[in-house]
């Protein structure tokens, strides 16, 4: 393609777009699997300052337009910041990607990343991947830290690592394990309706 997706942080393309497309069963165009995280060049230009998008726009000498964390307003201000950095002569390149590789006749998921040496809070800086053959793009969720009540290979509909729970109510399913939405709090409950029996549950035993 002759264009690139530009976002502020990797969250939108790596996590949220993935979960939304899966939840709504929408095919994601492959060009969304390579993007420019504008945080990376911004850190390089402004000496590694740590800030959010609104603060970055203001640090660049621009006036914030609209409401922070509103999708359209964030996109508009990201575009204005991008244009400002390009006018300053900044050269941009792909900072992150999601792609397939093959090895021993099997496929596995891989994320190509190289961290900035300094400062650590700047986020990530990358060089464009050098491929002999263009890879086939797929969807991918990030690996989550291990937790005795969570399993990183089971994700709920909203993209979070699902939570492993046990049924404590007396009855035929008592003691059975299942996976539920990982975005759960006591106040609001679960974000999505994900439910899957764990392999060790009596109901799934063979």
TrEMBL record:
GO MF, one annotated term: 3'-5'-RNA exonuclease activity
Record has Metal-binding as a keyword: yes
Keyword list, A-Z: Exonuclease, Hydrolase, Metal-binding, Nuclease, Zinc, Zinc-finger
InterPro entries: 3-5_Exoribonuclease (IPR051274), ERI-1_3'hExo-like (IPR047201), RNaseH-like_sf (IPR012337), RNaseH_sf (IPR036397), Znf_GRF (IPR010666)
Keyword Metal-binding: yes
Domain GRF-type span(s) in chain numbering: 156-201
Official protein name in the record: GRF-type domain-containing protein
Species, as recorded: Opuntia streptacantha (Prickly pear cactus)
């Amino acid at each position: 393609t002759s264009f690139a997706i530009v976002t502020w942080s990797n969250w939108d393309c790596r996590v949220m777009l993935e979960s939304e497309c899966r939840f709504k069963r929408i095919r994601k165009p492959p060009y969304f699997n390579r993007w420019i995280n504008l945080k990376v060049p911004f850190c390089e230009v402004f000496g590694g300052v740590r800030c959010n998008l609104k603060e970055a726009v203001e640090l660049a000498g621009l006036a914030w337009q609209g409401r922070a964390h509103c999708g359209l307003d964030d996109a508009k201000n990201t575009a204005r910041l991008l244009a400002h950095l390009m006018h300053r002569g900044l050269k941009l390149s792909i900072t992150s990607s999601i792609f397939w590789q093959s090895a021993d006749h099997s496929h596995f998921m891989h994320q190509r990343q190289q961290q900035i040496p300094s400062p650590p809070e700047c986020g990530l800086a990358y060089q464009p991947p050098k491929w002999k053959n263009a890879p086939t793009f797929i969807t991918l969720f990030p690996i989550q830290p291990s937790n005795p009540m969570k399993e990183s290979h089971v994700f709920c509909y909203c993209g979070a690592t699902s939570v492993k729970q046990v049924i404590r109510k007396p009855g035929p399913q008592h003691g059975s394990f299942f996976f539920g939405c990982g975005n759960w709090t006591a106040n609001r409950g679960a974000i999505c309706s994900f439910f899957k029996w764990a392999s060790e549950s009596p109901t799934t035993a063979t």
